[in-house]
Write a structure and sequence with these properties.
The chain has one domain: Hotdog Thioesterase (Thiol Ester Dehydrase, Chain A). It has helices spanning 30-40, 45-48, 50-53, 65-70, 72-79, and strands at 4-6, 19-20, 26-28, 80-82, 87-97, 106-120, 123-134, 142-151. It is an alpha+beta fold. Helices cover 22% and strands 39% of the residues. It is elongated, with a radius of gyration of 17 Å.
Length: 152
């Protein structure tokens, strides 16, 4: 499936219920995990110590849940875009869950669904449920309702 494009913020209202994706995959390597650990100060061994993690519950290091969550911003514009608007802002997220780990060197991709669109403070509030999924996994690794506002 390709990226869905809305010509204007108003056109988003026609997309409620629309399935989005899948996106191309992104490899989650140890360098990305380590860089996230440095940025956040979260150096828990299950993320940054491959030797110890090899004997741990996942058999290797895993990405931080919040790294997966932050990648929703990477994948969202690959799922849906708005062509003509004056400003777009990230308004927040709701209902974040981490049902499964992201093992190091996994290929992660996203799928989505337009949950709702409503007029909001002179713009249009778009809620997209983004599921980040490791290729071959039976459950998503992160599910989040992203909230964006687009102003005409």
């Amino acid at each position: 499936m390709t990226c869905i494009t809305a010509e204007t913020p108003l056109a988003l209202t026609e997309l409620v219920g629309q399935k989005l994706g899948p996106t191309p995959s992104l490899i989650i390597d140890q360098h990305r995990i380590d860089t996230f650990a440095e940025a956040t100060g979260d150096h828990q061994w299950i993320h940054v110590d491959p030797e110890r993690a090899a004997t741990g519950p996942f058999g290797k290091t895993i990405a931080h849940g919040y790294l997966s969550l932050s990648l929703s911003s990477y994948f969202l514009p690959q799922l849906i875009t708005v062509k003509s608007f004056s400003m777009g802002v990230n308004y927040g997220v709701d209902n974040v869950r981490f049902p499964a780990p992201v093992p190091v060197d996994s290929a992660l991709y996203a799928e989505g669904e337009v949950v709702s669109v409503e007029e909001f403070k002179g713009g249009y509030k778009l809620v997209v449920r983004v599921s980040l999924i490791v290729e071959g996994a039976d459950r998503p690794s992160c599910v989040v309702d992203t909230i964006s506002i687009f102003y005409p």
